């Protein structure tokens, strides 16, 4: 069974790029374009890992992360934040809310992101 990654990202280009790269690496992919859909799919789809953007339409990624970690059904799913927000406070807040890793989009190539995902799934 391939491991399933849920990508919660409103940027269509980036979401499709990550989905394609992850599929090439043998992962199964589920996608959500906003926080509400992301929360629903994290419960229904039981992904092995969630890749989460912070700036989303509707509820933001911090709130999505908090809700995932408060829900007994989803709290054990590792969440990696992938965001343009690179301020120290944002990073600390994300880690404090329970993210296993926090990647600033501009600093990582898709290959490096996949490496981080593999590490989180180990």
Describe this structure in words.
It contains five helices and five strands. With 122 residues, it is an alpha/beta fold. It has a single domain (4-121), classed as Response regulator (Rossmann fold), CATH 3.40.50.2300. Strands 2-1-3-4-5 form a five-stranded parallel beta sheet, with helices on both faces. Helix 4 links the parallel strand 4 (79-83) and strand 5 (101-104). The longest helix has 13 residues, at 12-24. The two termini are 15 Å apart.
Q: CATH superfamily assignment? A: Response regulator
Helix content: 40-55%
Tally of separate helices: 5
N-to-C SSE series?
Answer: EHEHEHEHEH
Q: How many individual β-strands?
A: 5
Question: Which band does the percent of strand residues land in?
Answer: 15-25%
The number of domains:
1
Identify the overall geometry. globular
Strand order of the largest sheet: 2-1-3-4-5
Provide the CATH architecture: 3-Layer(aba) Sandwich
Keywords:
122 residues, alpha/beta, Rossmann fold, 5-stranded parallel β-sheet, 5 strands, globular
Short structural description:
This protein is 44% helix and 19% strand.
Task: Compile the SSE list and pairings.
Elements: E1 4-8, H1 12-24, E2 28-32, H2 35-44, E3 49-52, H3 61-70, E4 79-83, H4 88-96, E5 101-104, H5 110-121
């Amino acid at each position: 069974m391939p491991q399933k990654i849920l990508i919660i990202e409103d940027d269509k280009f980036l979401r499709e790029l990550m989905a394609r790269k992850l599929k090439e690496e043998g992962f199964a992919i589920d996608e959500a374009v906003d926080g509400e859909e992301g929360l629903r799919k994290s419960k229904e789809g039981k992904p092995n890992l969630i890749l989460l953007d912070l700036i989303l339409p509707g509820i933001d990624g911090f709130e999505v992360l908090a809700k995932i970690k408060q829900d007994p059904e989803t709290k054990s799913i590792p969440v990696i934040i992938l965001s343009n927000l690179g301020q120290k406070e944002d990073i600390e807040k994300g880690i404090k809310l329970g993210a296993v890793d926090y990647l600033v989009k501009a600093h990582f190539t898709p290959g490096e992101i996949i490496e981080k995902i593999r590490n989180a799934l180990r």
